[in-house]
């Protein structure tokens, strides 16, 4: 089968014909350094044919023959130039095709991606492939058309062209004149319209070689995202209070000084951090520059976009719910400098903004900023590095900053900006810790205890709205046997199946296995399994039964699958069409609804008792963030936190809105243990089909790393190995251990030196996650 014609991504520019796949190395060689999307961090050298030399630049995507079969593989050019004098004389393969007419990566972005590869122990090619969206690589939203233009006069030497043109019939002359006056090549339809003729004169001129045709890629984007927000009217900037003005002045000083300073904007919920962001971006845009704003949840994106679109002329959005065509459309506009503000989730940190002036990470404490697959980067650290390379400020905004960021403030590495009061001096909501261990209704397996139920009644009767938070989806989180005390687990994972009543299925939330619930216990055969615990589906059913006269909506990953589903529910809630909004983490942060007068945390213990170093920190953050959704209007607000651990410091400090007290307490514990952020961890996870083999191999690798650390006199501790908290996941048994060191560079050095020499065991895979946030 013939190879498809080479196509240009950005513009109509003819690229050279494909060279022969092999050329012999000799003097005056011109080489390209190419990296591939493979878990091998190596740069490969390829010859650059003479016809490609003026075109190939670092940052281009290319196709190169790779492996014994010389199968064409996509790669990325990271360097190009004459070969060194000491380059060995070997047979090198040649670059086959340049895939784009313009480089996809700037020099700074190449430096950033190289840093990510080094920092997170993955290959450069994996990072580069992650940065470019699939819609850009696939050129979604574009198509190839045939266009016509005048033949280059140099190709017509020896002919009397003026005389030939004079003798042309009228319609052919009209075609020639139309193309001559056009400022770009025209399609057949455009030529016929301009010349007032059919296709015949065009084809005749082509046969006479006075005009030529070629393929051109054109855009036919239908950007639904812009249309969805077309109704938003422009608004003026708001008047800032004293705290906001002081915060903005500090940020503007760094912007005007072109400093790469990092600001930790610690403002209580409702303190007006978003308005500070907007007015800082206003300054950046006035210089013709661009700003990147990262938000943690797709549910926050619609509200964030509305705020920014009401203030700025061009806002692009990058998130996982976009179609490939829309993503490509935004990428093109951003790269062309046509976009003022880029709003998006984690991957938007890589937006190809050529005139970047500011980076903002809102709710910087959120774990969703850490990527769970290779490359396992953290967007906060990537943004920190990018701000350094671009010499622009970085703002990390949160009411509850991570202890990592807070320690950097204490050590004077980052600058603290404090906003301790709400806008208009509104009071923080009162938080009531409700001990439900002896609550009659909770003991009857109801979700709403007596105090919370009564509080909801009063709030709704007074015309207020209610938000209920529960971080467990489904109907019942466990199917439990009274006979043997075991729960029904997924056959592929060591995880209890969750009963989804709406589907009549027991579902695994890790591998998506589902089945009809068994009638007898798989362990002991006893009949009569019980459905234990409460998920968001069951909570919704209970709320609708107890408050039949009020409208209730649920937001979790089961109900928010459709495009625009988040915006639809949140807009209805903002308009007062929904009285009670309940859901998982996606409703816990960033949302601003002044009429919410009560927030209920159904079970504050769901994250507290996890086998996770960060469990206490995350519990504090969740409660503080959920509590911040109320009391934003003149009616005030109240928070009810149901728990069986009322004396737990994380819960008590969150109820007191005491971030400083919690940070001081938790940092004290972490320092005693020399745990993050006072040290760095890298988690190594091994998996395979046979548990005993995985355990044995984990011990072998841990011993090799331990011996290598001692030999190199590196202060790296090996913690483990041990079974992972979820020992079986998606049919594979899992063991893990951790590398711990005060200086992360020692961990990176050890792994880089030892990993290539580690033995390989058939059927067993392993990965390394630097600075993990998920310890399951």
UniProtKB/TrEMBL annotation:
This is Replication restart protein PriA. Residues 254-419 form the Helicase ATP-binding domain. InterPro entries: DEAD/DEAH_box_helicase_dom, Helicase_ATP-bd, Helicase_C-like, P-loop_NTPase, PriA, PriA_3primeBD, PriA_3primeBD_sf, PriA_C. Signal peptide: none annotated. Residues 1-21 are annotated as: Disordered. The lineage of its organism: Bacteria, Pseudomonadati, Planctomycetota, Planctomycetia, Planctomycetales. It holds the Pfam family Zn_ribbon_PriA. The keyword RNA-binding does not apply. The gene is priA. Its EC number is 5.6.2.4. NCBIfam families: priA (TIGR00595).
């Amino acid at each position: 089968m013939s190879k498809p014609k080479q196509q240009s991504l950005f513009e109509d520019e003819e690229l050279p014909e494909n060279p022969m796949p092999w050329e012999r190395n000799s003097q005056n060689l011109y080489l390209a350094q190419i990296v591939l999307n493979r878990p091998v961090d190596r740069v490969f050298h390829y010859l650059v044919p003479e016809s490609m030399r003026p075109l190939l630049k670092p940052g281009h995507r290319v196709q190169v023959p790779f492996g014994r079969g010389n199968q064409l593989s996509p790669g990325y050019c990271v360097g190009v130039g004459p070969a060194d004098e000491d380059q060995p004389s070997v047979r090198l393969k040649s670059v086959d095709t340049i895939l784009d007419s313009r480089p996809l990566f700037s020099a700074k972005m190449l430096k950033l991606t190289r840093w990510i590869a080094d920092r997170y122990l993955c290959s450069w090619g994996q990072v580069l492939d992650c940065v470019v969206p699939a819609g850009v690589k696939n050129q979604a939203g574009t198509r190839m058309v045939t266009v016509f233009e005048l033949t280059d006069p140099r190709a017509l030497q020896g002919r009397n062209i003026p005389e030939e043109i004079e003798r042309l019939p009228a319609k052919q002359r009209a075609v020639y004149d139309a193309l001559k006056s056009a400022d770009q090549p025209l399609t057949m339809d455009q030529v016929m319209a301009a010349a007032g003729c059919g296709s015949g004169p065009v084809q005749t001129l082509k046969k006479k070689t006075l005009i030529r045709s070629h393929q051109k890629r054109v855009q036919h984007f239908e950007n639904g995202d812009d249309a969805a927000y077309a109704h938003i009217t422009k608004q003026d900037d708001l008047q800032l209070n004293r705290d906001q003005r002081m915060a903005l002045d500090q940020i503007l000083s760094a912007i005007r000084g072109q400093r790469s300073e990092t600001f930790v904007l610690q403002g209580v919920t409702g303190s007006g951090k978003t308005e500070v962001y907007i007015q800082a971006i206003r300054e950046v845009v006035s210089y013709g520059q661009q700003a990147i704003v990262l938000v943690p949840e797709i549910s926050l994106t619609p509200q964030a976009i509305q705020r920014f679109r009401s203030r700025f002329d061009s806002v692009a959005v990058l998130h996982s719910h976009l179609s490939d065509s829309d993503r490509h459309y935004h990428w093109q506009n951003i790269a062309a400098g046509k976009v003022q503000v880029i709003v998006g989730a984690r991957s938007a940190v890589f937006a190809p903004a050529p005139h970047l002036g500011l980076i903002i990470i809102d709710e910087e404490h959120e774990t969703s900023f850490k990527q769970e697959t290779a490359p396992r980067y953290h967007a906060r650290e990537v943004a920190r590095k990018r701000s350094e390379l671009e010499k622009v400020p970085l703002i990390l905004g949160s009411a509850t900053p991570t202890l990592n960021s807070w320690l950097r403030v204490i050590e004077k590495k980052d600058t603290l900006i404090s906003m301790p009061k709400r806008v208009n001096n509104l009071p923080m909501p009162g938080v009531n810790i409700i001990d439900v261990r002896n609550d009659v209704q909770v003991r009857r397996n109801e979700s709403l205890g007596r105090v919370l139920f009564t509080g909801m009644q009063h709030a709704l009767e007074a015309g207020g709205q209610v938000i209920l938070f529960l971080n467990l989806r489904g109907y019942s989180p466990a199917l439990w046997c009274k006979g043997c005390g075991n729960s029904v687990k997924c056959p592929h994972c060591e995880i209890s199946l969750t009963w989804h009543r709406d589907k009549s299925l027991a579902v695994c939330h890790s591998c998506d296995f589902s089945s009809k619930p068994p009638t007898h216990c798989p362990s002991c055969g006893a009949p009569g399994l019980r459905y234990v615990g409460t998920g968001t589906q069951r909570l919704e059913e209970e709320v609708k039964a107890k408050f039949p006269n009020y409208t209730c909506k649920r937001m979790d990953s089961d109900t928010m699958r459709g495009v625009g589903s988040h915006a639809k529910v949140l807009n209805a809630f903002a308009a007062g069409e929904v009285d009670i909004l309940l859901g998982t983490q996606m409703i816990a942060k960033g949302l601003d609804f002044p009429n919410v007068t009560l927030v209920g945390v159904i079970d504050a213990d769901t994250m507290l008792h996890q086998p996770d170093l960060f469990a206490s920190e995350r519990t504090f953050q969740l409660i503080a963030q959920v509590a911040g959704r109320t009391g934003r209007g003149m009616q005030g607000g109240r928070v009810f936190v149901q728990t069986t651990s009322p004396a737990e410091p994380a819960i008590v400090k969150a109820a007191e809105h005491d971030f400083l007290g919690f940070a001081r307490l938790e940092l004290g514990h972490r320092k005693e243990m020399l745990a993050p952020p006072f040290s760095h961890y890298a988690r190594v996870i091994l998996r395979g089909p046979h548990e005993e083999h995985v355990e044995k191999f984990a011990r072998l690798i841990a011993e090799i790393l331990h011996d290598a650390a001692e030999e190199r006199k590196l202060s790296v501790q090996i913690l483990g190995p041990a079974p992972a908290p979820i020992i079986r996941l998606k049919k594979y048994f899992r063991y893990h251990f951790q590398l711990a060191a005060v200086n992360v560079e020692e961990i990176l050095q050890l792994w880089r030196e030892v990993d290539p020499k580690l033995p390989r065991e058939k059927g067993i895979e392993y990965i390394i996650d630097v600075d993990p946030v998920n310890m399951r």
